[in-house]
Each structure stands twice: as structure tokens, then as C-alpha cells.
């Protein structure tokens, strides 16, 4: 160090400035190399990217401490129109496994997922693998390449059925077993699946409190079809007319919905925590009897501590809100 200082002092001012510049560059390069090496040395396990908070929760229950789960959508974001940042796109490309819902749910960044898959990312779209059904008639969707997938008629909201969520857990576990054979992924899948089955039984009991003549749903958009199918409810109308694209309704559409609610005596419109309730409230105000607008967790989990910050918590909380509103 003393030799360096003496050499520095002996130089002219321009030479000193050049030495300072060179010294700063060397320090920055060495520091950057040190950070990169440390990050690599401390990295443990696999990296899983999940597009939604819901898929992220399923993945975390399986990955545990043997990897990192990165969720693209923040809490409260609507998966239909969210667009990831450039940093998130880079993480998608570099992950060991990317778990997407598919069937048009991630409409805002479907092109990002397609590009990542084309570039070699290990992408699995789970909704099409758990027996999805159509919006229109709740019939089974056909296979890839057919019109049901191409025209957006398949309902992507499969997580509202806990048994389909358990099937998603099985899919994730199988993918992880192909990446890392040192972990008993199946044991974790079985444990979490049992919790989902127990949640399903709890939801059945909660919704059984609704009288037969009140088991009718009106929703803000068509997202509760799997819940209705699973628990013997009927969706008779939606405020937003599109299944996946949240299309704005016409005045004729809204007038027809008001007539349906008047005729059926529906007591509540179920909206989402991720969407404004303005239209739903406008419809409720036109009905001839009192109609509550009740928010449910739909495309996103709730904040930590909300009680809906896990998929199981979200599903059971939604069931209680529906039962309270209809019974």
C-alpha cells in the first residue's frame, strides 16, 4: 500500500486522475465478481415461478425449504390484465419450473409465457390438465388445438374446486420429481392434498346452510362456475359479460340482469376483491328488493393476516361469505 501511495504522489495531476479512474474501475469489477460468487454459493434448491398467488401457495406447500417460489402477480392484482416487469420476465426465463394457469387467465402476459416456452423454459400450464369445462354449457373442454381452447370458451378458474387444486398439486409434484430426485415430493403432495380434501368437506358443511330455493348466484364476472358445479349452486347471471376478458356490458345486458334478479329473488351479487364494484352496485340499486354486493377473493389471495392468505383460507372464507349472504 505504501508503494502505491508513493507512486501516486510522484505522478503529475493528469496521471493521478487516470490512476484514480483505473482504481475505481478495478474496485467495481472486483466487488461485482464478489457479489456474483456469493449469490451462487448461497443459492440452494430449485427455483419455481408461479404466475398467480394461488398457484404460488400450492407450490410453496410442496417446495417447502428445498427451493424458492417466486410469484409473478402481486397480491390483489387481476391476472386477466397484469403485465410483468422486465425483471420478472428474466426470472421466468431462468427458472427451473414455471407454473402457469393457462386457458387465457394470464391474458396480459400470455405472449411472455409463449416466448419463454419457445426459448426452452420448463413451462407447465395446469388448468388444461385438470379436466376443465366450458363457460357456456359446463361441458368438458376438448383437447389442445380445438376450438374450445382457441376461442377462450374454457373456464380457467379451476382453483375454486379444491379437488382440482389437489390435482394441480399432484402435477407440480410430478414435475419437481423430474428436476430433483433427492426429495420425497410425493409425500408433501399427499399431505397437502389431504388438507384440500378436508377443506372441501368443510365447505360442503358451510354451504349446506343455504336453503334450496336460495342456492342461486349472480357474480360480477363468470368466475364461480367450478364452485357452483362442486357444491350444487346455480349461476344465473353475471355483470360483466365476458368469461375471461371481462367485457363491458351494454345497457341491454344490465337491464336483463336486473330482470333476472327481480324474478329469482337473488339477495346478493358476488364481486371480486381485485375489481371495482361500481357496476355491481349500480345493478343492485335498480333491483326491486334489497341486494347486497359481497366481495369474494377470486384471482388473488388476500393480504397476510386476512384469513384468505392461503388457498384453503381463501376458499373457506368465500364459502362463509356466500352462506351468510344467501342464508
List the helices and strands and how they pair.
Layout lengths: L1 H9 L2 H30 L3 E5 L2 H11 L3 E5 L14 H9 L2 E4 L9 H9 L4 E3 L21 H4 L11 H18 L5 H23 L8 E4 L5 H7 L2 E5 L12 H14 L3 E5 L5 H9 L5 E5 L14 H16 L1
Parallel strand pairs: 1-2, 1-3, 3-4, 5-6, 5-7, 7-8
Helix content: 40-55%
* Most strands sheet: 4 strands, parallel
Number of strands: 8
Number of separate helices? 12
Our measurement of the CA-to-CA distance between the termini, rounded to an integer number of angstroms, reads 81 Å
Net shape? globular
Give the tags:
globular; 12 helices; alpha/beta; Rossmann fold; 2 domains; four-stranded parallel beta sheet; single chain; disordered N terminus; 327 residues
What features would you describe in this structure?
By secondary structure, the protein is of the alpha/beta class. 49% of the residues lie in helices and 11% in strands. The chain contains twelve helices and eight strands. The strands form two sheets. Strands 2-1-3-4 form a four-stranded parallel β-sheet, sandwiched between helices. The protein has a four-stranded parallel β-sheet with strand order 6-5-7-8, with helices on both faces. Helix 3 links the parallel strand 1 and strand 2. The N terminus is likely disordered.
Amino acid at each position: 500500500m505504501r508503494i502505491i501511495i508513493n507512486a501516486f504522489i510522484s505522478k503529475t495531476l493528469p496521471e493521478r486522475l487516470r490512476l484514480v479512474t483505473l482504481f475505481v474501475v478495478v474496485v467495481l469489477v472486483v466487488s461485482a465478481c464478489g457479489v456474483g460468487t456469493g449469490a451462487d454459493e448461497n443459492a440452494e434448491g430449485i427455483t419455481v415461478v408461479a404466475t398467480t398467488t394461488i398457484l404460488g401457495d400450492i407450490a410453496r406447500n410442496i417446495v417447502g425449504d428445498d427451493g424458492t417460489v417466486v410469484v409473478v402477480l402481486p397480491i390483489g392484482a387481476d391476472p386477466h390484465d397484469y403485465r410483468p416487469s422486465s425483471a420478472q420476465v428474466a426470472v421466468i426465463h431462468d427458472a427451473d419450473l414455471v407454473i402457469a394457469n393457462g386457458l387465457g387467465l394470464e391474458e396480459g402476459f400470455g405472449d411472455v409465457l409463449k416466448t419463454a416456452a419457445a426459448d426452452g423454459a420448463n413451462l407447465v400450464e395446469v388448468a388444461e390438465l385438470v379436466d376443465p369445462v366450458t363457460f357456456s354449457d359446463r361441458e368438458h373442454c376438448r383437447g389442445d388445438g380445438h376450438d374450445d381452447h382457441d376461442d377462450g370458451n374454457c373456464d380457467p378458474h379451476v382453483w375454486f374446486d379444491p379437488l382440482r387444486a389437489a390435482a394441480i398439486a399432484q402435477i407440480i409434484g410430478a414435475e419437481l420429481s423430474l428436476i430433483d430426485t433427492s426429495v420425497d415430493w410425493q409425500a408433501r403432495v399427499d399431505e397437502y392434498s389431504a388438507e384440500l380434501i378436508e377443506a372441501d368437506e368443510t365447505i360442503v358443511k358451510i354451504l349446506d346452510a343455504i336453503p334450496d330455493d336460495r342456492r342461486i348466484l349472480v357474480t360480477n364476472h363468470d368466475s364461480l362456475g367450478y364452485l357452483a358445479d362442486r357444491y350444487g349452486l346455480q349461476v344465473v347471471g353475471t355483470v360483466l359479460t365476458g368469461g375471461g376478458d371481462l367485457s363491458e356490458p351494454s345497457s341491454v345486458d344490465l337491464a336483463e340482469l336486473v330482470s333476472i334478479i327481480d324474478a329469482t329473488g337473488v339477495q346478493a351479487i358476488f364481486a371480486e376483491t381485485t375489481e371495482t364494484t361500481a357496476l355491481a352496485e349500480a345493478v343492485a340499486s335498480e333491483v326491486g328488493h334489497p341486494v347486497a354486493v359481497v366481495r369474494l377473493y377470486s384471482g388473488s389471495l388476500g393480504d397476510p393476516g386476512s384469513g384468505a392468505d392461503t388457498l384453503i383460507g381463501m376458499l373457506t372464507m368465500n364459502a362463509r361469505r356466500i352462506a351468510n349472504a344467501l342464508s
